[in-house]
Predict the 3D structure of the following.
Amino acid sequence: MKVLVVGGAGYLGSVLVRRLLKAGYKVRVYDRMFFGDVGLKSIKKKVELVVGDMREVDDKVFKGIDAVINLAGLSNDPTAEYNPRANWQMNTLATESLALKCKANGIKRYIFSSTCSIYDVGPVDEEKDVVVNEETKVNPQAAYSSSKYAAEKRLLKLVDDRFCPVILRQGTIFGFSPRMRYDLVLNTFVKDAMLKGAITIHLGGEMWRPLVSVEDAARVYLMCLEAPEKKVRGQVFNVVGRNIRISELALRTKDALQALGVPVEVKHDYKVTATVRSYRATGKKTERVLGFKPRVSVHDAVKNLHKNILKYKRFDFENPKYYNIRWMMLLEEAESIIERTGYLMEKKKKR
């Protein structure tokens, strides 16, 4: 069986692709390669790589493919708000067009990466502070979450006997990946502790967040790929390991790092900012239908992050490549400079 992973060179994609290969699948990765090939470097010979924009996928990319997993698009609030138009094009329109191409090419299984941030209620509000599930009515307002929710609705309209879309609303992912990110809350805590010796939590850390390790998230995609169609066709699943307050997450990170000999101070900032988010989501449906139970704890993930940061010498913590919004802004600036100058070092010869 051959799987097309759109966005397969990214943070989650580079972990999922390895899991698919280990399970015996053939993998074709379709990715724009914005972050280079670091995510696939050690397995390049084991996968088929097609470089391209998810908004312009040629039909031949689907040749020989049995299932599609769509992880691509803008992946957080800062990048979505930086360019709402591109966010809508990728997260909503391209998600739908990929699905239509799947149907046209006889590909039934289409697994879409959505987000639990559609449940966000903003700064902590006691009346709204409840655990939600896949049936909870939502009305996301942020560019990122609203684009994902719009994509979900378009996919569900395409469900029929010939098409089996599955929607995974992921919690906040954490853990080490070959294509590392330090702009995810637990990863940020570990980075700050190792770089500055301190973790800062905003609003006293009162906010809730549904968390899941990158390894556990990859397992859920594999489960959705292998589950009988009748179990997953047109279904929405929350991908959640556990719900945890940010304050507890900081303390657990501190304890795990101190056990490794890393001194950590926890600092508090009680200011309310526009970026403060709080929501809780249950993963009971995912457990009941797919049999998913999280395996990676916060403590285990912190230990693994620390070990791999040392192993691969990822000490350039402030490098823009580890932060989606910083990297995209840098690339856009470089693009505008090249457009003005025509070339970087040497003018390319016309072919």
Observations:
- The first helix runs from residue 13 to 22.
- The chain has a mean pLDDT of 94.
